[in-house]
């Protein structure tokens, strides 16, 4: 992997922000480091990833920087939302990281944290003061424990929260909205090879087997339908959606630690995946690049080329999952499982684990080893083309490897 520069604004924090209650929303108060608000390990915050991300935008960030005075990122306390915020802040764009929980990393200069819920109209409205562009990243229910939560909870965040975001954009005269969707809006278990945005339709909502995919598909369509909505002052709301596959990268906390733990517990003694399953993955640095280029392409300078459009964004290659994940087993000192069991047996075991999770949830909560939906994703080929993003956005993915991410994970774990 190419060496990449560190975000300079993260070298030393010169000021931090404290969120204080004031009425229905939140206000931000600037404080100095001596007030002990955003520190590093003593306050359980960790420095920004030492394996820097290469978010080189190939010279495309110029018009964005001139136009965007302030951007808001929902889900800004999560892994991808935070990385996106750091990239924007490094270009001297003011950033609001909007989330229910603070990031576990240091807040960079040019960014503020605003505590709030995407379902809370008043909080979102207040946070969006002076904002020119919204990146709607927040979602719920993607995998593991979250995937098995109540339908109403997942829908209230993914659909209800998106409705609030669109309404606030209209009320605040925010002209650009970039939505982080998912390939799952079109993938529901049927093989897809080299699918594109124009020929692969949405998977029927009533056939989705998990609430996350169904609600993401609804939100995806809501955002695209909002494109062209008139705003006060004569402008229009310009929207687009980014559809990534699985995300990986340094300090990713959702998938890699869970897999590593299960490997070390020797719970992966047989393969859940099909040996020939093809899929795409996206490194967080490439996903950041795709989002920023998309936001720029919603401007007059780019002829609003992305307005009302959907884009698949990934690393630019299709990989056999059983080969792609090999470095993880090797670097942990384990042999990759070669025993494959019938898919019906796997689904039965996963179904039992899901049932136990629901049965025991009132007294004991645990994350199932794997869910039926995750088995489906690992056993059915689903790959997509990024030609449209290349042509319209100028998206050129950098080369990253899972091995580099695993190395970083092991080094960071040993240093804790």
TrEMBL record:
The keyword Oxidoreductase applies. It comes from the Eukaryota. InterPro entries: 3Beta_OHSteriod_DH/Estase (IPR002225), Lipid_A_modif_metabolic_enz (IPR050177), NAD(P)-bd_dom_sf (IPR036291). GO terms for biological process: steroid biosynthetic process. Keywords: NAD, Oxidoreductase. Residues 72-338 form the 3-beta hydroxysteroid dehydrogenase/isomerase domain. GO terms for molecular function: oxidoreductase activity, acting on the CH-OH group of donors, NAD or NADP as acceptor. The keyword Transport does not apply. It holds the Pfam family 3Beta_HSD. Belongs to the 3-beta-HSD family. This is Short-chain dehydrogenase/reductase family 42E member 2. It comes from Eublepharis macularius (Leopard gecko). The gene is LOC129340302.
